[in-house]
Amino acid sequence: MKHKFDHPETQATRGAADLGKKNGPMSTPIYQTSTFEVKDNDEQLRLTGSDSYYTRYGNPTNTVAEKTVAELEGVDTALTFSSGMGAITTTIMALLKAGDHIVSQRDVYGGTHKFLSQWLPRLGVETTFVDPTDYAQHERAIRPNTKLLYLESPTNPGLRVVDLKAAATLAKERGLISMIDSTFGTPINQHPAEYGIDLIMHSGTKYLSGHTDLICGVVAGRRELMEKILATRTTLGNCMDPHASWMLVRGLKTLAVRVARQNENALRVADFLEQHAKVRRVHYPFLKSHPQNALALRQMSGGGGMVTFEVEGTGDDARHASEGLRLFTLAPSLGGVESLVSIPVLTSHLMVPADERDRMGVTEQMIRLSVGIENAEDLIADLEHALEAVGTRQTATVG
User: Fold this and answer.
1) Nearest by Cα to 317 from 380, 378, 397
2) Catalytic residue among 56, 165, 250, 280
3) Is the model's pTM score more than 0.70?
4) FRET label pair with 235: which of 247, 309, 366, 387, CA 20 to 30 Å apart?
C-alpha cells in the first residue's frame, strides 16, 4: 500500500516505494528495455502511452523517479528528460506556438538565455527580459499575446532571489503559465508550488542526482500542463534512459542529507569570504548582506550549496585564484558531493553577449563555487591559500 509522507527526508528516500509489498527488491529494478510484450492486440491498445508500452513513452523505472520528484515538490506529476536543457526546451515548445510571447527574467542560466533569445525567434516566439526583482517591470512587459512567465531562483550565478508569491500572483492575474528553474533551490530548500508556481524545472544533473555522473532534467507540475508536455516529449523523443533513471532514484535517496550538509558548508564558506580582504563582494542568500536576505529566509529553509564571489582585482586574478584551488575542482556544473569551482564568463554564461552579462552583473572577477560535503575547514583553508594569488602578479609586474 502506498503511503504519503510529510517530511522531505522521507519523501526523497522512500517517496515512490510501495511499503505494502512483501519479498520485493529494495532497490528499484532497472527495466532496461525498449519495448514490452503483450498477450494480444487489445492489451496493446490499452497500454499505448503507458509506462509498459515503449520506453520513449514511459518506463517503470522512469516512473519511480518521476513520482518521487512529484511528491517532493507537492504537485500532481513529473516527467524526466535526457537533460536539463531538454526539459526546458521541450516544455516551452509544448506550451507555446508561433506568435506567442514570453516574459523572462534577465538573470537566467546562459543556455536558457540563448534558447529564449536566439532559438525561439526562429519559431516565431519572442521573449522580453526583465529585472528578476522588479515586478512592476514584469507587469509592464506583459502583452496580449504573452503566455509564459519564466523564472529562476536563486539565479545563476548571482544568487538573486525571486519573490515567488509575487511572481505567481502576477501570472495568475494575467492568465499566464508560470515556470521556474528551481535547480539551485532544490526541493529540500524551497517549494515553489506552495506559492502558486505552475511548473518547476530541475536540472537533475545537479543536486537531484548529486554525484556528477548523470545528465538529466525533470519538470513537475499540474496534470493538465504535464499532459501537453508528455505528448511533446514523446514526439521529440527527449526521454530518459531507464538506467539513468535508476541512477537518479539512487541519488534522490540521499538528497536531503546531502543538501543539509551543503547548506551548512556553503554558509560557512560565505561567512569566511565576506571577511576576506581580497574579496570585493559575496553573493549568498542567507548572508545578512544579501539584498533579498529577508525574502530568502521567508521562502527558503536553507541557503543552498552555491556561493558566488568577486575578487578585489581583475579577471586574471579570478582565473589565477580558481586555478590555485586544490580541493575545489575546476570544472563546470554543480550540485555534486565534490566541491567545484568555475568562472561564469568562461562557462555557464560564455554564450551570453558581454553587454547582457553586464546587465546581469556577471563580471570577469566573479567566481562560482559549488560547495560539496567535504569538511568545511578544509574548504576554507583551500580558499585562503588560493586567494593569496590575488593581486600578487600585478604587483610583481609593476615592480
Assistant:
1) 397
2) 56
3) yes
4) 247
